[in-house]
């Protein structure tokens, strides 16, 4: 079974969950469009129609990283995966890639639904603002930077969730306690070691982000590189535990 087949398997198993979420978001936006005369507060519309669904789908994605592995043990398909001539890290990466693909597909659907059903009705009013038209290019650039930062953070959290689950499989009893301790301990350790490691990478160029008007914002590239390296390290470690250490 190739990596592509593994990816398709994980994609098909998670697709119904994200499809239900996408349908629920579409229905929510239809209700908001129907009730737009009642919900005149822009902040209220933004929170209900965009922020809350964004938080929900993020939690669903992180949780799916846990239940992907849990399902392998519950259905005994773990025996099949361990018998395949495929490295463990490829298996966990396939699961990671499927979760991230569906996450960003759901986020695109969320943004598109919000734009076409909610913002379209308010677009003429919004475009009458000269300040908004001037800040729109900077806002788009900020959104693109935020997207890849979010992708990096989501991928890292998924690898940590996988690591915590696999740590729980190493013991016969109190697995959920070990999983919780592994998850919290990993997050704590990451927060502790990231600042000094980022300081060692102070020579890296800063990331330029337009902030609108004559203002500009810069982000130090060190923390993001550290997070990327830690995520890659956990992915390798997860694969090693998966194929060599876990007893099923």
Descriptive keywords:
about 250 residues, two-stranded antiparallel sheet, 2 strands, mainly alpha, 7 helices
Structure description:
The chain has 248 residues and is mainly alpha-helical. It is 81% helix and 3% strand. It has 7 helices and 2 strands; from the N terminus they run ααααααββα. It has helices at 3-34, 42-74, 78-83, 88-127, 130-168, 175-200, 222-245, and strands spanning 207-210, 216-219. The chain has a two-stranded antiparallel sheet with strand order 1-2. The longest helix is centred in the middle third of the chain and has 40 residues, at 88-127.
Task: Indicate the topology.
Blueprint: H1 3-34, H2 42-74, H3 78-83, H4 88-127, H5 130-168, H6 175-200, E1 207-210, E2 216-219, H7 222-245
Antiparallel strand pairs: 1-2
Distance separating the two termini: 21 Å
> Cα-atom Rg, whole angstroms?
21 Å
Q: What is the molecular shape?
A: globular
Average pLDDT number: 81
Total helices: the number is 7
With strands numbered from the N-terminus, the spatial order across the biggest sheet is 1-2
Task: Specify the helix fraction band.
Answer: over 70%
Strand content: under 5%
Structural class based on helices, strands and sheet pairing: mainly alpha
How many strands appear in the DSSP assignment?
2
How do the helices and strands follow one another from N- to C-terminus? HHHHHHEEH
Biggest sheet layout: 2 strands, antiparallel
Low-confidence stretches: none
